[in-house]
Amino acid sequence: MIATAISRRARRALVVVAALAAVGASAPASAQFMTGRGPAERGDAAVDPQRAQRILEGVGFDQRLGERLPLEVELVDETGRRMPLAELFGDKPVLLAFVYYRCPMLCPLVTRGIASSFKALPYRPGEDFEAVFVSIDPEDTPERAAEKKADALSEYGHPETAAGWHFLSGDAAAIAALTETAGFRYVKDEKTGEYAHAAGVMLLTPDGRLSRYIFGIDYAPKDLKLALVEASEGRIGGVVERLLLLCFHYDVALGRYTAVSMLWLRIVAAVTLAALLGYVIFMLVRERRARRRLAAGGMASV
Question: Three-state DSSP class for 196?
């Protein structure tokens, strides 16, 4: 009985070793590097190069990782209800995007990109995280916000998650407090009345601290998934997601998760395999000794 149990454990350990070896062999082929930067909306400013340059110099993201948003700021949701931002924080990570609801081109692409990426996630707005959109235009209204929320839900295809989507607006002071803390720089073109701004999303911890920035209008599900897991501080994600975070690291400059150096992956794999092989050898030696003791006991009884 003892020998049989030990033998089974040894065989299971050998299976694990073989699986790790297979993963290690396939890692170089599957590792990819993600790149990209947040584009800025230019509008009519491109007609005047000097004016365009002045505007675009004021546009971008200054990553303020670890900074806490002023959650006491009051905003208005898509139903017209005034609320402190703190209502959306507490027990879930938050995805935040700064947009404006009459934006002719870039903002709809950002919202569509977010909704499209959500389709591939194992997590749902409202259940696992909150999706929050804040307008940078103090003249935006709840009616416009409601229209954009309907568009986003239509793109996502899961109307039952409506409670997890929040399209907010506010006065100039509230908007400034949030965007300045988040490092989101934008410029209003007084000639056209439009806003020049960068495209991207921010992931925040349940207590409102900035955790990750992801740039652009197309958000790789892998990036969003890992960013949400990190921002959740253990509230979502399992063992597989934790292991993936060992294989990818957040590149601050790119706003993407990139594969860890293959050298380090090979070192980690080699150490893990050596440890498991050591365990297998230990179990086999222990099994052999147990068999000898059983055999000796049988002979003694004879």
Answer: strand
| 200, two tokens | 């991207």
User: What tokens were used for 81?
Assistant: 């209800």
- Band the pLDDT of 268: cuts 50, 70, 90: low
C-alpha span between 255 and 216 (Å, rounded): 9
Q: Is 168 helix (H, G, I), strand (E, B) or coil?
A: strand
Q: How does the average pLDDT of the chain come out, rounded?
A: 79
Is the pLDDT confidence value at 95 over 70? Answer: yes
**Residue 284 has which token pair?**
């086999």
- What pLDDT, on the 0 to 100 scale, is given for residue 119? 96
Give the per-residue pLDDT at 22.
35
* Residues 6+ away with beta carbon under 8 Å from 25: none
List the domain boundaries for the chain: 2-32+262-301, 43-253
The pLDDT value recorded for residue 257 is 54
Pairing of strands 200-204, 195-197: unpaired
Distance from C-alpha of 178 to C-alpha of 264, rounded to nearest angstrom:
39
- Amino acid 284: pLDDT: 87
Distance between CA atoms of residues 125 and 103, nearest Å: 24
9-37 per-position pLDDT tens digit: 444 433 333 333 333 333 333 322 222 33
Fold classified for 43-253: Glutaredoxin (3.40.30)
53: Cβ contacts below 8 Å, ≥ 6 apart:
none
SS3 220: coil
CA 275/CA 99 separation, integer angstroms: 51
* CA 265 – CA 75 distance, rounded (Å): 46
